Amino acid sequence: LPQFFCSLIYCLIHVSQDSPLVLQSDRNVTVNARNHMGQLTGQLTVGADAVEAQCKRFEVRASEGGKVLFSADEDEIVIGADRLKVTGTEGAVFGHSVETPHIRAEPSQDLKLESPTRSLVMEAPRGVQVNAAAGDLKATCRKELHLQSTEGEVSSTNTIRLGNLPVGSFSSSSSSSSSPSSSAPRQTIYELCVCPNGKLYLSPAGAGSTCQSSSNICLWS
């Protein structure tokens, strides 16, 4: 193999057909590109620990059609492949915000959005839609679940069901109490009532529904 101890300047280097071109060094292999003034405009360095490229824009194109699969410059990094697949067990980690028009899981896989130690925030100026077209949508939390609208309302186009609500019975203070000084029993269970405009309120539980006797609350809303 030929060896060069100084610089080699040539317009074209090619090898015979079906033979590879090998550039080999005990240290780094560096390819430089310069303009007509001799200024360095691009550099590719293959080292023992890394491959480094220094240029204004770095591109990786498909062999057929020349589609840009990956590009990087000072302003942004673009991945042009039809699918980006991250196979690491820890997934993808983003230090700041993530902006995307669509998030979905692979077929037959669950989609999970989780923040183990902090809150999970989804924001959009024209609304955020969470849709389960063929199954249930479940929201669980350890403490409290808040549904709040600062300027509008929280509404439903179908049935809202609250399961596992306790059924209570209320004994009035005039029931079998022999001591006149005995106090009325403390009310601990309430009935959940709804106003015509959708507002919910609590009414003391009784043998039957007590929502009607407390319906004057709806006048305040």
From TrEMBL:
<keyword id="KW-1015">Disulfide bond</keyword>
<keyword id="KW-1133">Transmembrane helix</keyword>
<keyword id="KW-0325">Glycoprotein</keyword>
<dbReference type="GO" id="GO:0005856">
    <property type="term" value="C:cytoskeleton"/>
</dbReference>
<keyword id="KW-0812">Transmembrane</keyword>
<dbReference type="InterPro" id="IPR006875">
    <property type="entry name" value="Sarcoglycan"/>
</dbReference>
<keyword id="KW-0206">Cytoskeleton</keyword>
<dbReference type="GO" id="GO:0048738">
    <property type="term" value="P:cardiac muscle tissue development"/>
</dbReference>
<keyword id="KW-0735">Signal-anchor</keyword>
<dbReference type="GO" id="GO:0060047">
    <property type="term" value="P:heart contraction"/>
</dbReference>
<dbReference type="InterPro" id="IPR039972">
    <property type="entry name" value="Sarcoglycan_gamma/delta/zeta"/>
</dbReference>
<comment type="similarity">
    <text>Belongs to the sarcoglycan beta/delta/gamma/zeta family.</text>
</comment>
<dbReference type="GO" id="GO:0042383">
    <property type="term" value="C:sarcolemma"/>
</dbReference>
<keyword id="KW-0472">Membrane</keyword>
<dbReference type="Pfam" id="PF04790">
    <property type="entry name" value="Sarcoglycan_1"/>
</dbReference>
<dbReference type="GO" id="GO:0016012">
    <property type="term" value="C:sarcoglycan complex"/>
</dbReference>
<keyword id="KW-0963">Cytoplasm</keyword>
<keyword id="KW-1003">Cell membrane</keyword>
<protein>
    <submittedName>
        <fullName>SGCZ protein</fullName>
    </submittedName>
</protein>
